[in-house]
Amino acid sequence: MVDVGPKAVTKRYARAGCIIVLGPELLCQLKEKGFQNKKGSILNTAILAGIMAAKQTSSLIPLCHPLPLDKCNVTIEPESDHSLKVECECSTSSRTGVEMEALTGASVAALTVYDMCKAVNPAIEITTLRLEEKRGGKSDFFPTQAS
């Protein structure tokens, strides 16, 4: 584990996201049913799963520092006629960044949508998991539109 003891405590922020490719037919069905199925509210369940995962990142990723999150917010919205966009933003005041928490939150939220919808379409794809923004610490990160 990296020694972050000498680092100053600063405000840290990260936003990560991914795309869930459901297919136009499944997305249309979900919209018609208010994103509900036999298991319950798909979006609410996925949002809670993402937040819970972000809070448990250090238990899931070896050598990842445990962080007290000041904020964790997961959003899931239609991205196209066949996909959803998942975003997870996290912030903390700490000696290390929250990129892994944001990435974990986004990925587990997407996996939860997959789990709740796989009976209808097992060909769902989760793509483009990436860090979208990072602030605080040594350097900030904002990917270009071309990447």
Task: Kindly describe this structure.
The protein is α+β, with helices and mostly antiparallel strands and 147 residues long. The protein has a single domain (10-135), classed as 2-Layer Sandwich (Alpha-Beta Plaits). Helices cover 31% and strands 32% of the residues. The strands form two sheets. A four-stranded antiparallel beta sheet has the order 4-5-1-6, covered by helices on one side. A hairpin with a 4-residue loop joins strand 4 (71-78) and strand 5 (83-94). The longest helix is centred in the C-terminal third of the chain and has 19 residues, at 99-117. The two termini are 31 Å apart.
Number of helices: 4
Number of domains: 1
Q: Per CATH, what is the topology?
A: Alpha-Beta Plaits
CATH class group: Alpha Beta
Rough shape? elongated
What value does the average pLDDT take? 94
Largest sheet: 4 strands, antiparallel
Low-confidence stretches: none
Radius of gyration: 16 Å
Strand content: 25-35%
For this entry, give a set of tags.
single chain; 147 residues; alpha+beta; Alpha-Beta Plaits; four-stranded antiparallel β-sheet; two-stranded antiparallel sheet; 4 helices; elongated
Short description:
The chain has 147 residues and is α+β, with helices and mostly antiparallel strands. It has helices at 24-32, 42-55, 57-60, 99-117, and strands at residues 10-21, 36-37, 40-41, 71-78, 83-94, 125-135.
Please give the structural blueprint.
Blueprint: E1 10-21, H1 24-32, E2 36-37, E3 40-41, H2 42-55, H3 57-60, E4 71-78, E5 83-94, H4 99-117, E6 125-135
Antiparallel strand pairs: 1-5, 1-6, 2-3, 4-5
Helix pairs in contact: 2-4
